[in-house]
Design goal:
CATH topology of the largest domain: Rossmann fold
Radius of gyration: 16 Å
CATH class of the largest domain: Alpha Beta
Number of domains: 2
Largest sheet: 7 strands, mixed
Distance between the termini: 12 Å
Strand content: 15-25%
């Protein structure tokens, strides 16, 4: 599914919960000439999210929202996105599941990166489960977000071999390095560039 773009970059929001290394990678990508997106907003559900420092460093507007009342949080997010003319959303380690109605508002315009070769190992504790099942390969996937967890159409995947010495931490580090490579590639693919 291609989204056509004119000459202006698509205003994009990135949703984060943690360290924000994919956010940093996406910001760097957004500043290149070939990037179809500009990152105009960062949203987090976590006040301790280390990724927020990248929003500050790169002078990107950001907002922390408490998801205890999800409907209220999502209503606020929609207002923010509308006000800032955001047309595209990248989830980058966002640890909350968005509601069906929220996803519907941005149908085909929300993507996510997941640290496994989907459709296998949806959800959490991915690397631990991969190792427990003695898999030979793992990887990462960028996919469109639908109301079913980690089930949207796959845009791009990267496969990597697991070594016998790997533990969940070392595997997470390896996979993350690939995530930084494929997330921008997925965006270029969506926008047919």
């Amino acid at each position: 599914m291609a989204i056509s773009i004119g000459y202006k970059k698509i205003k994009t929001a990135v949703f984060i919960s943690g360290n924000g290394s994919n956010l940093k990678s996406l910001i760097k990508f957004s500043k290149t000439k070939k990037s179809p997106i500009s990152i105009d907003f960062v949203i987090s559900n976590n006040t301790k999210s280390k990724g927020l420092k990248y929003a500050k460093i790169f002078n990107i507007k950001n907002k922390i929202l408490n998801f205890h009342k999800q409907a209220l949080a999502e209503k606020k997010i929609l207002q923010i996105l509308h006000k800032n003319k955001i047309k595209f959303i990248c989830l980058a380690g966002f640890m909350k599941i968005l509601s069906k109605s929220f996803i519907k508002r941005f149908k085909g315009k929300i993507i996510n990166i997941h640290p496994s070769l989907l459709p296998r190992y949806k959800g959490l504790k991915t690397h631990q489960r991969v190792l427990e099942n003695k898999e030979k390969y793992t990887g990462c996937t960028v996919h469109f977000v639908t109301s079913k967890l980690d089930s949207g159409k796959i845009i791009i995947q990267k496969k990597l071999k697991i070594s016998k010495r790997d533990n969940p931490k070392s595997l997470a580090k390896k996979v993350l390095a690939y995530e930084h490579i494929i997330y921008p590639k997925a965006i270029l693919k969506i926008f047919n560039l």
